[in-house]
TrEMBL record:
Species of the source: Periconia macrospinosa
Keywords on record: Membrane, Transmembrane, Transmembrane helix
The keyword Signal appears for this protein: no
Membrane-protein topology: Multi-pass membrane protein
Classification via Pfam families: Fung_rhodopsin
Domain (Rhodopsin) ranges: 61-307
Family recorded in the similarity comment: Belongs to the SAT4 family.
The protein's name in its UniProt record: Rhodopsin domain-containing protein
Transmembrane segments: 43-64, 76-96, 134-158, 165-185, 211-231, 243-264, 276-309
Length: 443
């Protein structure tokens, strides 16, 4: 059983002279552009521009994160992996773009456009499938790595929030992994790895595989949008800040639109109306744009961090200016409260005015210095230490207690007759005796 590539080779032998192609290159390029529905120069320019912007955004992200955090984390590693895969897929496109346009022309009208190419050019299409599989693998790895980068960032925010949100995160991880395996290897499953017998000159369109691929891609995008929305719902941020964050997440809606455009518009029908094949140039461009936008999204998070910091600084400045320059109504209320406070203090009795507070000095608060001032009677006298104190030093001194007691009694009993005072003093002199007796017993 001869393959479709062998049939094309037989067709070329009967239509192309042995010494090569006789068609003008400009005419052939015009036919290729019409078959691919996109000019070759425009195609390469779009691929280069999107790749350049994505690499710039990713480099800026790494610069800001290293400068702010001091090292790279898991989400940064996924972003670096996505950038490397994007650069590799871009290199594949620039390497095989001539073959892609030849395959597009051959897929649109094999009998007519087969006369445009030499036998060598047609035979070179045999190795195109291997490069197609490599491009799909690296492009979908790039897209999936960006999704895992966001999931790694969300993990730091939701791991201690709620259990349902944690289950949603794990479900998103599982669906994203399944999407990467299916989309990355779908072309190899349908066409094989290096044999072009089933997919020459363009891969056939399998409806079930096409819509399953789109459904998985869209589902993962929606789940990644849903997680921050649930986080923002329970946050205390202002609505303006929430809307800015959701506006940034609208790039994921752009990803969904690209996926739908790729699924609906990337199909080429033959002249008979029954044969269906993928438009290779169109599909490759949209997958590359989706991967580039994904890397740009991962890079914009660094700009968003700086933007959020500026918003916080602006809010703090606004609050500080409000405290410094209150409005007329607020100033009047403050003056009224102060005047009421002064009137209340003026009505206090003179004894309360002259009464000193229990603790003088500044209020120290709940600090170790506050504990120290409490021990030292709030700095009114030097504190006592227990270093070097023995049991004998801490015992009761009856003689000193006796003299202090006599001194107090003399000041209180100035009006009492001398006899009563002497009698009362002799009676009170017996009070220190238990302490003297206790000391003698100790010895």
């Amino acid at each position: 059983m001869t393959s479709s590539m062998d049939k094309l080779a037989l067709l070329v032998r009967s239509t192309v002279p042995f010494n090569g192609n006789t068609t003008h290159p400009k005419q052939r390029e015009r036919i290729e552009n019409a078959a691919a529905k996109l000019d070759k120069t425009t195609f390469l320019a779009l691929v280069g521009i999107f790749t350049g912007v994505a690499v710039l955004a990713a480099s800026t992200r790494i610069f800001f994160n290293v400068r702010k955090r001091g090292k790279l984390f898991v989400d940064d590693m996924f972003a670096i992996l996505a950038t490397c895969c994007l650069i590799a897929s871009t290199g594949f496109i620039y390497y095989i773009h001539d073959w892609m346009y030849i395959a597009a022309a051959m897929a649109s009208n094999p009998k007519k456009n087969g006369a445009l190419y030499t036998k060598t050019e047609i035979a070179s299409l045999r190795g195109l499938l291997k490069w197609n599989n490599l491009f799909f693998f690296f492009a979908w790895t790039c897209i999936t790595a960006v999704k895992f980068s966001f999931l790694a960032l969300f993990w730091l925010l939701i791991r201690d929030v709620s259990r349902p949100l944690l289950w949603l995160w794990w479900f998103t991880v599982a669906i994203t992994t399944v999407s990467w395996i299916f989309n990355g290897w779908r072309n190899a499953i349908v066409c094989g790895w290096s044999s072009a017998s089933k997919c020459a000159p363009a891969p056939p369109y399998v409806k079930e595989f096409g819509w399953t691929s789109s459904a998985l891609d869209i589902t993962t995008d929606l789940l990644i949008i849903l997680i921050p929305i649930l986080l923002l719902r329970n946050s205390l941020l202002r609505w303006a800040v929430k809307l800015r964050i959701l506006g940034f997440l609208c790039l994921n809606l752009f990803q969904i639109a690209i996926c739908l455009a790729r699924t609906i518009g990337g199909v080429i029908r033959g002249r008979d109306g029954r044969s269906v094949a993928f438009g290779m140039v169109y599909i490759f461009l949209l997958i590359h744009v989706e991967a580039s936008v994904a890397v740009i999204m991962s890079g914009v998070t660094a700009f968003w961090t700086v933007f959020a910091a500026r918003i916080r600084d602006r809010e703090r400045q606004r609050q500080s200016t409000k405290r410094r320059s209150p409005g007329i109504c607020n100033s009047f209320m403050v003056w009224l409260r102060r005047s009421n406070g002064k009137s209340k203090t003026n009505t206090l009795p003179s004894t309360q005015k002259s009464k000193k507070p229990f603790l003088t000095g500044e209020i120290t608060g709940g600090t170790l210095r506050g504990l120290g001032t409490f021990i030292r009677r709030h700095e009114r006298e030097s504190g006592l230490t227990t270093n070097g104190i023995t049991a004998l030093d801490s015992q009761y001194d009856p003689l000193q207690s006796y003299h202090e007691y006599i001194r107090k009694e003399n000041t209180r009993a100035t009006d009492i007759p001398l006899q009563l005072q002497t009698q009362g003093t002799l009676d009170q002199m017996k009070k220190p005796e238990p302490s003297l007796q206790l000391k003698s017993n100790d010895y």
